[in-house]
Request: fold
Amino acid sequence: MTDQELKQKSIIYRKKILTYIKQANAGHTGGSLSCVDILNVLYNRILNVTPENFYDLKRDHYIQSKGHSVEALYVVLADKGFFPESDLETLCQHGSRYVGHPTRKVKGIEHNTGALGHGLSYGVGVALAGKMDNKVFVLLGDGELAEGSNWEALLTASHYQLDNLCAIVDLNRLQITDWTRNVCCTDPLDEKFKAFGWSVQHVDGHDVKALTKVLSSVPFEKGKPSMIIANTVKGKGVSFIENNYKWHHHVPTDEEYKKAMKELNQALQKLNNEKENN
Amino acid sequence: MKTLELGKANLEVFADTLIELAKKDKRIVVVTSDSRGSGKLVPFAEQLPDQIIEVGIAEQNLVGVAAGLAAAGKKVFAVSPACFLTARALEQIKNDICYSDHPVKLIGISAGVSYGALGSTHHSLFDFAVLRAINNISILAPADNFETRESVKLAAEMLQPVYIRFGKRAIEHVHRPNADFEPGKAIIIREGRDVAFIATGETVVQSLLAAQLLEQKGIFCRVVSMHTIKPLDEKIIFETAKKCKALMTVEEHLVYGGLGEACAAYLMQAGVVLPFKIVGIRDEYTPTGSQLEIFKEYGMTAEGLAGTAIKLIEKK
Ligand SMILES: [Mg+2]
Reply:
């Protein structure tokens, strides 16, 4: 898959995220739009995970610790053929297996998350069990880093030199209340992770080319777990959703939905024009 | 009166059993939170260093890591003092083990008031209550060495989450050697039609001794070891309540939310009414003392239980 095709997918995923959130009248809009490029690159270029090998433990593992951004994950998994996309029309409806946080009832999801600060310890366990066979990726939110359990897991990962483990922080600098620095400042993150024994790299979390490069180079150092600090924009891709904490779980109104689709369609058009000009 | 033969601490039997099993099955992994000494797992660590993972004093991480290991195909025993395991890491137990359905074996060591004079920080008098209210976990409290060994052996093969708690004091044998053991199926240790003791964990010994005392007074007691708190053996509770004149539950737990309330709720809904008493630790600051001293304070030793039983049938 070319970079151009990946970029196209990112926009299509964003349209679908908004569409299913709108249909369900529920969901985490800002966070799903902020991490979807990371998921795009992981599932389309990095992870050795398919519907066929999902029950083989030697495959790669992906754990979404920031479980609230589940709409991004559902949309990407549907695209990868884990389940029919039409299933997502039942999102959050009575009796649906598509809950508002990741659940193992859905094929492609291996751990139930939603309470924050749980994914990394689980990832450490998987990485310990399968050392050297496969890679384990855990996506963390930046607000979630205030949970102390993350820091317990960071210690264990470096203690056991888990270089098959890679954590990615979706650093959109926002959380439900406000800017993260105003709620519980975690800066400087890179120095903290380094002090905890991790090998750290920064990346633009919306640049599929840069994400591919950094995710392919895991482990960054032999004998150390890898940490990617992905600089992102919460609500990325839709001008009026970007960088606004109110969109943490705001559902677009009819008007907002139309406007967002228009912006995303224009972005898609622009991308296609660029392709033709090249 | 027959004296009961003293066995080992259930904790030691747990550690011995686990090392036996783990030598034969390399998928067995133990995770500890600086608890290998208190869990009697030093020989395990020495003999099977590749099958033990230490996470340091970090119970939340202990349970999360255990879930990941189990998901990746290991048979995981997460071992930590019951008080820390089931309180500090409760959300991890709820979400990472039970809700996510990863078959970890949670081992709560030195449960109840086993830590005695170390005080309330180290007591677990709430663990039945909190875990009973969580879906998808079995709760076991073995009474003696036999029940401990069987629990650990069966837990190793269980495909659902399980919590097993026991104490650290050397404990008397209550079973004949070839008893049957099956989780969810209580064991009748002694027959009688006057008073029934339905007890769990290390209070079974006290109940059996109480039954012996009462026999000398012409009161004949049934003693049931309810080693599994969840799923509860309702059949035996019903049958016992029908057969005996009065029923007492005994547990090393607060009187709220444990075995007693589970039995009461079941009997009420089954329409069975009889003189009934929940014996356990009262809702107050627990006094300082050893496990047995605290048992005595709350009427949970043989004498105390016998006295309560007499009052209960007199009331009738
Ligand atoms: Mg954030």
Observations:
- Residues 254-277 of chain A form the longest helix (24 residues).
- Chain A is about 40% helix and 10% strand.
- The radius of gyration of chain A is 18 Å.
